[in-house]
Design goal:
- By secondary structure, the protein is α+β, with helices and mostly antiparallel strands.
- It contains 12 helices and 9 strands.
- A hairpin with a 2-residue loop joins β2 and β3.
- α4 packs antiparallel against α5 and α6 runs antiparallel to α7.
Length: 393
């Protein structure tokens, strides 16, 4: 965890989360996972710590942490249990979108509740026929006087069952100059008539994080549900907000990778083979060295993406790099940790079995890694990030 330049107050926040993870979270993870019990008490704990307000400005009751501090908190939380980090990630992205691109009325209406966790946010983007290609979504919001009539089907909605605020991407007419659909973000309240939770997706990991289908069947929304004041800016607002999500995902992947390395190091120091603990075997030492190097590199790249975004600079390339590298590093570290555990790594009594199942989510969440590679490649082709890459201009 990179805490260089943190103030005393910021360090205190990170340390408070670390204590919570150590004392309250880690001792319960195995039991909660085994019995598939929703972590009601731990959820209350992260509410009391104010973690649902990480991206909410102070005037609306949030912590408004700087992004490098936000990333460190997400890493510490994910290192304890990635399920808890998953409750916060998309919620923080929605809070950022509303606070940055919403109207003052929207900020006052939604952010105080989001800061306390009384209101939970989720992203409704992916559709059965439109995954990475969000331009081809079919969800439509038809203007009818002072309202929108919204119809559409969204899938893979993380926290969608328990969320109360659904930030939803929809088509709001056509751009006359280009002939392309105008895409807008709508702040949809779950209680709206016509907004329904459909199928629940059962995943290989994160069993206590609800991932569902959201069906919107002719729901009537006020025009004030439009994020901001102008239609057609949905992709611009979304891409800016997803940089926050990608930094959070990268930090969470670093946390999970750190947990995998910790498990491998501990096990290697206890397991004996050929008369010595296996951390004395060179093959294991080389694997641990590679794992540790990947972890630190992922952490530093994530911190740099957070720093650049915090400074108000364009960060789509760096946030994509951080998400790409950290998730791939996490997956490799988890696999190497399982190899060090040998057959025991495949048994669910050992934490690495869960970690190994959770790691692949970061390869496909917040934009698949191939999509993130395209983001990076396009910036390279534009020649706009020579300074980031250290290339001659």
């Amino acid at each position: 965890m990179d805490t260089l330049g943190f103030s005393d107050d910021e360090l205190a926040v990170v340390e408070a989360v670390r204590r919570f993870v150590s004392k309250e979270v880690r001792p319960q993870v195995a039991r909660l996972e085994r019995e598939q019990l929703f972590p009601t008490e731990l959820l209350q704990g992260i509410k009391e710590l104010g973690l649902f307000g990480l991206a909410v400005p102070e005037q609306y009751g949030g912590l408004a942490l700087r992004l490098p501090v936000f990333a460190s908190v997400m890493e510490v939380l994910a290192a304890g249990w990635t399920t808890l980090a998953a409750y916060i990630n998309s919620h923080a992205t929605v809070a950022y979108a509303i606070s940055t691109h919403g109207t003052e009325q929207q900020r006052q209406r939604y952010l105080p509740g989001m800061a306390t966790g009384a209101e939970r946010g989720c992203l409704c983007l992916t559709e059965p026929g439109a995954g990475s290609d969000l331009q081809s979504i079919s969800t439509v919001a038809v203007s009818e006087g002072g309202t929108y009539r919204v119809r559409g089907d969204k899938i893979f909605v993380t926290n969608g069952e328990k969320a109360t605020i659904l930030l939803t991407l929809a088509r709001t007419g056509k751009d006359e100059s280009t002939g392309k659909p105008k895409l807008s973000l709508l702040v949809v309240e779950k209680k709206t008539v016509g907004v329904l939770v459909g199928s629940t997706f059962h995943k290989m990991g994160f069993g206590l994080v609800d991932t569902v289908e959201i069906r919107i069947e002719d729901a009537e929304l006020p025009k004030s549900a439009l994020l901001g004041t102008q239609e057609g800016l949905g992709m611009r607002h979304l891409l800016d907000s997803l940089e926050i999500g990608r930094i959070a995902i990268a930090a969470s992947a670093v946390g999970l990778g750190a947990a995998a390395l910790e498990e491998a190091t501990r096990y290697a120091s206890e397991r004996k083979a050929f008369g010595v603990t296996i951390d004395h075997h060179q093959a294991v030492q080389l694997r641990l060295a590679e794992m540790a190097t990947r972890l630190v590199a992922a952490r530093l790249l994530t911190a740099e993406a957070a720093r650049k975004k915090q400074a108000g600079e364009r960060a789509d390339m760096l946030s994509a790099m951080a998400k790409l590298f950290a998730s791939e590093a996490c997956a490799q570290i988890a696999q190497d940790s399982l190899r060090i555990h040998g057959g025991y790594g495949y048994i669910n009594e050992f934490a690495i079995e869960r970690i190994y199942r959770e790691a692949p989510l970061y390869l496909v969440g917040e934009g698949t890694n191939d999509i993130n590679k395209l983001v990076i490649a396009r910036r390279i082709m534009e020649g706009a990030d020579a300074d980031t890459l250290g290339l001659p201009s």
